[in-house]
Amino acid sequence: MNILIIDDDRRNIFALKTALKSRGFLSQGVLTAQEGLDLIAEGKGFDVVLLDMMMPEFDGFQFLQCISSDREKGYPPVIAVTAKAMSGDRERCLSAGADGYVSKPVDIEVLLAEIRRLLKGWNG
Predict the structure, then answer these.
(1) Region class of 86: left (phi > 0), else alpha (psi between -120 and 50), else beta
(2) For residues 123 and 105, what is the distance between their CA atoms, to the nearest angstrom?
(3) 48 or 69, which is more confident
(4) C-alpha pair distances (Å), 27 with each of 21, 56, 57, 80
(5) Is the pLDDT of residue 122 over 60?
(6) Tens-digit pLDDT profile for residues 18-63
(7) What is the dihedral of CA 37, 39, 42, 47, to 10 degrees?
(8) How many whole angstroms separate alpha carbon 68 and alpha carbon 112?
(9) Range among 67-76, 92-101, 113-122 rated most confident
């Protein structure tokens, strides 16, 4: 399984990549939502996207808006990963188009459960 991590903090990318690698996942990290869109458009074969929702200039909500009309093109499921864990944030992310939600700091077992849940029912 190949996972794309979009986060503007290199430390978050490193931590997620390390945790995922220890469980046998391949992953690639990019620092901007635009880089993520470009890689997906190139057909790099990602199974899941882990998307930081709070990034400067081009945030996760804008990323979801960009792909919402093109979901039939086979975009992978997107898990919103955010430090914003206030009441209503999960619902806001899901209503914006995210397929799943995990709060920071990321509990890797919760993340893995969310990935399994999405891929079990994903038709993308």
Answers:
(1) beta
(2) 29
(3) 48
(4) 7, 23, 24, 16
(5) no
(6) 999 999 999 999 999 999 999 998 888 899 999 999 988 888 999 9
(7) -100
(8) 24
(9) 92-101
Task: Quote the tokens at residue 18.
Answer: 């390390």
Task: Kindly list the distances between the CA atom of residue 83 and the CA atoms of 21, 54, 72, 86, 97, in Å, as whole numbers in the listed order.
Answer: 22, 8, 29, 9, 18
Q: Which two tokens stand for residue 123?
A: 């038709």
* pLDDT digit string, tens, across residues 2-15: 999 999 999 999 99
Write the single-letter amino acid at 120: K
- HEC string for the chain: CEEEEECCCHHHHHHHHHHHHCCCCEEEEECCHHHHHHHHHCCCCCCEEEEECCCCCCCHHHHHHHHHCCHHHCCCCEEEEECCCCCCHHHHHHHCCCCEEEECCCCHHHHHHHHHHHHHHCCC
